[in-house]
Every structure is written in structure tokens, then in C-alpha cells.
Amino acid sequence: MNGLVLRSAIVAALGGLLFGFDTAVISGTTEDLERVYDIGGFMLGFTVATALIGTIVGALAASRPADRYGRRKVLFAIGILYFVGALGSGLASDLWLFMVFRFLGGIGVGVASVVAPIYTAEIAPPRYRGRLVGLVQFNIVLGILLAYLSNFVIENTLPQDTAWRWMFMVMAFPAVVFFLLLFTVPETPRWLFSVGRREEAVAVVDRTTGSPEEAEFEIREIEEALAKLHGATRVPFFVRQNRRVILLAFAIAAFNQLSGINAILYYAPDIFRMAGAGDNAASLQSVVVGLVNLVATMAALTVIDRIGRRRLMFVGSIGYLVSLGALAVVFFAFDGEFSGFSSVLVLAGLVVFIASHAFGQGSVIWVFISEIFPNRIRARGQSLGSLTHWVFAAAVSWTFPGIASALGGGTAFALFFVCMIGQLVWVVLVMPETKGVPLEEMERSLGIELSEEDVAGAGSGPQGH
Length: 465
Hints:
This protein has 465 residues and is mostly helical. The chain has helices spanning 3-25, 30-37, 41-61, 63-69, 71-91, 95-123, 126-155, 160-169, 172-181, 189-194, 198-208, 212-227, 243-258, 261-274, 279-307, 309-334, 340-359, 361-372, 378-407, 409-429, 439-445, 452-458. It is a multi-pass membrane protein.
């Protein structure tokens, strides 16, 4: 594999590490937030959801600057947002200021979920694309594990009144590293071609391909795809032609969150406490969950370009049903009367759940969404998928504590179980395989190739987002 391609993919994927760290770090601070800011369960849920509201804004706003200013410049902005959000959250003097900085960090997460996979998909050759875009997901779960580990270490080494603040502020250090490393990687050739900077684009292709023949083929593919848009300014998005890929992106993103994954990541220590674990044991068990997440993601990345996206999703869906069904039964059977044995069953159920997610949905979602949209609407398509993902994440994470408290953990896990039956049906009957298909050929294989009539109307028709 070309060294520059690998380095570029790793650097972009560090945005995913910050994404994962920011997602999980708050799990170790929920009790401190309730104590310091004197808030109850509903307000805690809203405080946690503040970052998710930021991710919705970030995902919604990401595509236009990514198309106008380039993928790389937007990645620089993400590094700044993470840095400011981390320091501000840790230093906040009151609840509202804390939520403002969590919101800013959330914008960074939302933008990263759009732009990091696009950057990697556009710079990677087809035969390595699944694994390289999958590096984003690998770094997300690595960030989650590092957040759990960091929380555990800080909780056991620093005084309680300052420990929770440092849990947020440590993220400022990797944010600076990410920002500096971006100076070592190029802009993507597809974006450079799209804005008429052909000489720079050709230079990048020459540096990222293995031979002159491969470079010539890639340049021809990109230019042929862009030639269809000659004279167009911004093609419509919400049109019949794009209906299939829009529904595919919406479905995989919605099912991702209807599994309950983000609610479980945010509230993992609280779930273990519900099952009878002490504070220190709950934090340590969260680290175990993060480690399993990382190992299962590594396993998926070794096979995603060999066995394909659909098979990973199928295996993950079966694992969801087994684990969520078992967790629902355990919570219904032992709710309020947990013993050592039943607590072990909860840990085992969550381990299987996390492994199933990491091997299936977690490793596939960002690869799949970045692949199915054609060049002309890829940024907006990725934005739609990320927006859907974060809207559902906010809804599920905000309502999970209330449902678990009012109706019991068994009901919450049973609802997730029912949703995952829907995902299994969708994978079997609807989801296409995208393994190894060049991005410029994807629209032909999905039946969404731009017609001459579409091109003619692109410059003057209504503009979608």
C-alpha cells in the first residue's frame, strides 16, 4: 500500500479518535455533574444530549464548507473545535457555560463524522478503501477505550472535586496533535479536480497510486464523472434519481442508533450500577467493554474487504438479537434484586452486544455511506447519514435514562431488540454489497447515474441539501 495514502488515512482517522473520546468521556462524569450542578435525571439527560445537539448542527452544516473549502481545511477546523470544547468543558464555572462548550465539541464530532470518511474514501484506492475508511471507526472505538481508561485512571488518582474536569481537558492534547499532523497530508484529488485545480490533483494522484497506469486510470475515471456535471453549479439532492441511496443512508444510520449503542456507551457505568456493581467496579467494567469494542473492530477491518459489508452486517444483526434479548430477560428477571451471578450475566450480555456492534454496524456504517453516493453529492450524502445518526443518537440517549428508570432496564433493552429485528430484515432484503466497486462506478451499479437531462437542469433547478 502507498505510504502517503496510509499516512493520510491514519491522520484523518485521528479525527475519529477524538470523536470517540468525546462520545464516551462524559460517562465517567454523570454523578459529578449531578452533584456539582445540582441537577436531576431529566436535566442530566439534557446535559448529555447538548453535545449530541451540537453533532446534529455539525453534521447538517458540514457538507457546504467541505465542498467549498476542501476536506482538509475542514479537518483543521475540527481540531480547533475539539480543543476549545475540551478546555472549555473542563474549566466551565456553571452548567450553562459547560453546555455551551459541550455543544461546540459536539459540532466538531458532527463535522468529523461527515468529513473524515469522505476524505479517506476519496484518497484511498478501491481495493483498500474498506479497510482505510474503517480506520475511522477503529479510531472511534480506540477513542472510546482511551476515554474509559482515562476516566478510570483520573478517578483513582485525582481529588473528586477536580477529577471530572480533567476527564474533559485531557482531550485537548490529542486535538493539538491532530491539528499539527494535518500539515503533512494533501487535499483529496477528487475535490481538487472538482474545483478546477487539475495540476495539483494530478500531482496528488501521482503520489498516491502505485504506477503510472493506475494513476492514468484514476484520473480518467474522475474526469469522466465530473465531465457529466460540466456547466452545473450545485446539482439537486432530494430528487427521484437519488431516492435509493438517500433511503439506504437513512436506514443504516437510523438502525445504528436504534440498537441503543450510544445510550449504552454514555451510560455504561450507570447500567453496571443498576446491575449491582460498585462505582470502581462499574468504571473498570466499562474499560472491559471498550477493550472488546476495539478488538472486535480490528477483527472486522481485517475481513471487510474480503467478505464484504452485507455479511458483516448480517453477523452483527444476529449478535444484536442474541445479546439484547438476553439483557432484556436478565433485567426483567432480576431487576432490583441483582446478585453477583446476575451482574456477571449483564456484563456478558453487554460484551456480546458491543462485539456485535463493532464487528457489524460500527465497522460498516461510515464505509457504506461514503461509498454509495456519487462524487457530485457525496458530501451532502455523508451529511445526511451523519445527521440521521446524531438525531437518533440524541433521541435515544435523552430518553434512555427515563425509560430505564420508569419502566425498567428490561423494557429499554426489549425495545432495542425489536428495532434490530427490523435491521436484520433490511440487511437480508434491501442492503446492496459495495465491496471493491470504484466510486465512479458505484452510481451505475446502484442505478443512479446522472442523465443528460439531470445535468442540464443542475445549474438552474432547485438546490437540495
